[in-house]
Fold this sequence. Notes:
two-stranded antiparallel sheet; 2 domains
Amino acid sequence: MKKYLLLFAFILFLCIFNNIELKAKADSTTINIVRMFSKDIFETNGTPYLKPMVQSMNATSNSRFFNSAYVPKKVKKPYFKVSLNGMIGFVPQSYKTYSPSLPLEPFDFNKLGQFIEPTLENPFHIKDTAGLAYYAFKTVIDNAVKKGYVSLPKSSTTILGNQNTSIYLPHDALIKSLNENQAFQLLPPNLQDTLQKYINQFPENFDLPTGLNMNTFFVGIPQVEIGSLYGTEALIRFIPPINMGENIGDFAFWGLGLKHSISQYFTKYKRYAELSIDEYDSLRSLEETPLDLAVQIVYQGTYMKNKIGVTNAELEANANMFNFNLQLSKKFNKFFEIYGGYSLESIHINADYKYVIPWDLQIKLGLVTEKLDDKGNVVIDPATNWPIYETRPPDYPGDLYPQTSIVKLNDLNHKIILGANFIINKFNIYLDFNYSKFSIFTGGVSYRF
């Protein structure tokens, strides 16, 4: 999981001053512009870049709920089915690309009042230099894109793909766009020079990240089913809060479900609902066995908290998944059963990311410094192969103002399920195929007592 999230962290860390020759300390305006641009790039591209992985991972884990639609109407004492289930999902090609974008904003005279406050001494008194510079830059790019001076790539890779893509922002095109703005011509020469300076300091190429070229996802989940009362069976999935190492961090998973027999209400099948599971499993011929029908609802949740990258960006994510299943099954003999159904799932994810400016950019801004050995060489962390950075207040205080971005992801998915169940006494071995936006194979083994 961590390697996925490390790539996702690029959105936070695009450097807008790669070509700047800075003094030991950058001014506060430059640092604030860096923060604003990092946050906007994150919030503009973060969702389409990450969403395919979220969809694939959660849809894969949000499966493998049943291997038979049969539920007895009642039992003398409860039965338990304990199972270990595995799911493997295959990523479609359409999940590997998205259309990238930049934080653009059309020019609006009324918004200048947010940054310029006229005074008797200076009609162009700037009250927010960083805000004005950043607003001007976004309007310049917006106009350049609309006029065709700048072309955005049609697609870039998501975290699941593998494609090299760059956004090219030529300085001459941006200066041309700036000069076309009538408001720019009204500014005093020193302010015009300042805005042009910011544009010329911007890098012309922004490399978007390649992904992991992921084709499959694998999930393993333990499960317990308890029955039955009035033809209803309960399902429990649970992984307690544990630390799963540096790759995942703190993780918890749980799920609760109810399955209810529909076939028990049909006159033709009522007598089968009165059988215990052992009696039902002993039916030997196709003529003896009914077509079972059931409905199931399942509600699942996950929680993850981890620190990502050398700057220890904090990720805290909660997912809630609701699943509705319509199930069918048919026994052919005491050893073999086929099953299938339709599944509708709704996934909602809230993720909070708390992050600071990346170390390499903090070095250029004069906020941190690389740690050096006795010979003056940069010290490399052998565990990560990254340089070790130091904060030494007051000269190198680091980024003292972390930012937080909230990403909300929602998805609705439909599945058609077809599988086979092999019965050996109290053991069940089963395999099935889930057809949806992407293909999922699931399987497992259960024991009943």
